[in-house]
Amino acid sequence: MKAAVRDWVRAARRIVVLSGAGMSAESGVPTFRDAQTGLWAKFRPEQLATEEAFRADPGMVWDWYQLRREMIGKVVPNAGHLAVAAFQQRHPGRLAVVTQNVDGLHQRAGSAGVLALHGNIAEDRWLDRPRACCTRASLEPGRPPRCAVCGNLRRPAVVWFGEMLPPAQLAAAQDAAAACDLMLVVGTSGVVYPAAGLARSTRGRVAIVNPEETELDDAADAVLRGTSASLLPYLLED
Ligand code: BJW
Fold first, then answer.
1. Is the CB of 49 under 6 A from ligand 1?
2. How far is the CA of 152 from the centre of ligand 1 (A)?
3. What is the pTM of this model?
4. Segments of the chain assigned to CATH 3.30.1600.10
5. pLDDT per position in the chain (238 positions), as tens?
6. CATH code linked to domain 30-74+124-158
7. Which CATH entry fits the domain spanning 1-28+76-118+164-238: 3.30.200.20, 3.40.309.10, 3.40.1170.60, 3.40.50.1220?
8. Cα dihedral sign for 52, 55, 57, 61?
9. How close is the Cα of 108 to the center of ligand 1, in Å?
10. Gyration radius of the chain over CA positions
11. Does residue 19's CB lie within 6 angstroms of at least one atom of ligand 1?
């Protein structure tokens, strides 16, 4: 099956790589839903990744993101990220990266035009609509930092449950999914929408790269049980 998917890559005019946390696992970034080591092994998602959770305990949620930022600052892209970026460089315009990951590792590997559906953990934004007083000058350090005048809090620039995805990135991802001949769905459990819906909406072939079962296996033309760093260099070589 591996060889067949490599043939599909070679024949495809437009490819989408839809990636999730497993793409960065071999860089040392924990996934979300792994029962033992996942980021949510000790907390339920709604305790951390919602606006309500942040408003209820901003310090706790802020500290969790700070820990992850520090960890992500120490890791590097792995052979999977690098294979994707190298393919894009050899074949300009043929492969689009749509990622649920907030870690920036595709971008650091050299991928161009990455559509980051769930934001960027390295950036912050205002929690409430910024008022005239909410400027860099008014920023007071803290956990989280706040506007010294009105108290508006800074929050990580990621997409939490119940929040809209960045509209332009989502629209571009939907267009890419509609136009592709082949979608490689790499390292995602496929439980979070609307990202997972991209794999169900494409008319192109769908190939899954994942060591475990996923919620999208039923939508796939091929399921490759293996890791991204071991399979992508093979699948994407010329
Ligand atoms: C390896 C590996 C290796 C391990 N190699 N693989 C339709 C139906 C039902 C619900 C909904 C729906 N549409 C929308 C919803 C609601 C909700 C949702 O999806 N809920 C479901 C959980 C039920 N979605 C939303 O709320 C989204 N917003 C939205 O829809 O807005 C419109 C709206 C607004 C208001 C009301 C209603 C609608 C927003 C979703 C935001 C998700 N945010 C998070 C947190 C980001 C910030 C942060 O980082 O803290 O994004 S949640 C978390 O899950 C994170 C991830 O990007 C996302 C996906 O997880 P992922 O990447 O799949 O990771 P894992 O851990 O689940 O899986 C890892 C996989 O890797 C596993 O399969 C491993 O086997 C594999 N693996 N090693 C390859 N080496």
1. yes
2. 28
3. 0.97
4. 30-74+124-158
5. 999 999 999 999 999 999 999 999 999 999 998 867 777 877 777 778 999 999 999 999 999 999 999 999 999 999 999 999 999 999 999 999 999 999 999 999 999 999 999 999 999 999 999 999 999 999 999 999 999 999 999 999 999 999 999 999 999 999 999 999 999 999 999 999 999 999 999 999 999 999 999 999 999 999 999 999 999 999 999 9
6. 3.30.1600.10
7. 3.40.50.1220
8. positive
9. 22
10. 19
11. no
